[in-house]
Amino acid sequence: MTYIVTDACVKCKFMDCVEVCPVDCFYEGENFLVIAPDECIDCGVCEPECPVDAIVPDTEDEPDGKWLQVNAEYAKVWPNITVKGTPPADREQFERETGKYEKYFSPKPGKGS
């Protein structure tokens, strides 16, 4: 099992999760974070840190494994992030919106740390 970041993170990107990760397995996109499944040790400490409940075990992924695939793909090309940055200023507008990945997701990398 691994943990995965899901739709709720898009355009919110709070980043509280990155500082508690003991193995630094978070990677940063322009408006989304992902977890490298091959690096995650399944400790679960990141899950309760997310204020929008975007982090879940991969056992709670969609039936087609969408989020595991997204996390694995972008963890290979985005920079690693280990220090909490500044979340988007307009994040509160998007906190409870659904279907954000299809509407707003950017494949561009973030800054990393």
Automatic annotation (TrEMBL):
Cofactor(s) recorded in Swiss-Prot or TrEMBL: [4Fe-4S] cluster; [3Fe-4S] cluster
Q: Which domain of life is it from?
A: Bacteria
The alphabetized UniProt keywords are: 3Fe-4S, 4Fe-4S, Electron transport, Iron, Iron-sulfur, Metal-binding, Repeat, Transport
Pfam families recorded? DUF3470, Fer4
Q: Where is the 4Fe-4S ferredoxin-type domain?
A: 1-30, 31-60
> Any signal peptide, and if so, which residues?
none
Q: Does the keyword Transport apply?
A: yes
InterPro entries, alphabetically? 4Fe4S_Fe-S-bd, 4Fe4S_Fe_S_CS, 7Fe_ferredoxin, Fd_C, FdxA, RnfB_subfamily
Q: Which residues cross the membrane?
A: none
Please name the SUPFAM superfamilies in this protein's record: 4Fe-4S ferredoxins
The task this protein performs is described as:
Ferredoxins are iron-sulfur proteins that transfer electrons in a wide variety of metabolic reactions.
State the protein's name.
Ferredoxin
